[in-house]
Amino acid sequence: MAKKPLERPEIVKPGGTEGEERTRLTNFNTKKRTTSEAPKTVRMTAAEKMMAQELVEQVQALTHKNITLSTILRAGLYMAQAGGADKVLKVIKENI
């Protein structure tokens, strides 16, 4: 008794409507861990996540090194320290 081949329906991705922005966000995961330290969670709004991802992509385009969100946040810590507590507080009041 010969069975007929399995027929699967064609996969169709749902299309967005015109003028609609993409609202789905991706998680920031790093595949490579350089230390045994447990990963930390940083809470951000959707707009902040998008801004961070765009910044990661811009910096990555300038170098051959692997730039991650964690790298950007660590660099921001050093920039904040160099700028001083007054400037950090001003940025917090203006943006957060």
What keyword list fits this structure?
96 residues; mainly alpha; 3 helices; 0% strand
Describe the structure.
Residues 1-11 have a biased composition (Basic and acidic residues). Residues 1-39 are annotated as: Disordered. This protein has 96 residues and is an all-alpha fold. It has a domain at 46-95. The protein is built from three helices and no strands. The radius of gyration is 21 Å and the shape is elongated. It starts with 45 loop residues before the first helix and ends with a helix.
How do the helices and strands line up, and which of them pair or pack?
Blueprint: H1 46-62, H2 69-83, H3 85-95
Biased composition (Basic and acidic residues): 1-11
Region (Disordered): 1-39
Structural class based on helices, strands and sheet pairing? mainly alpha
Helix share bin: 40-55%
The largest sheet is: none
Q: Roughly how many Å apart are the termini? A: 70 Å
Give the strand tally.
0
Which regions contain 5 or more consecutive residues with pLDDT less than 50? none
SSE pattern, N- to C-terminal:
HHH
The number of helical segments is 3
Radius of gyration: 21 Å
Query: Which term fits the overall shape?
Result: elongated
- Percentage of residues in strands: under 5%
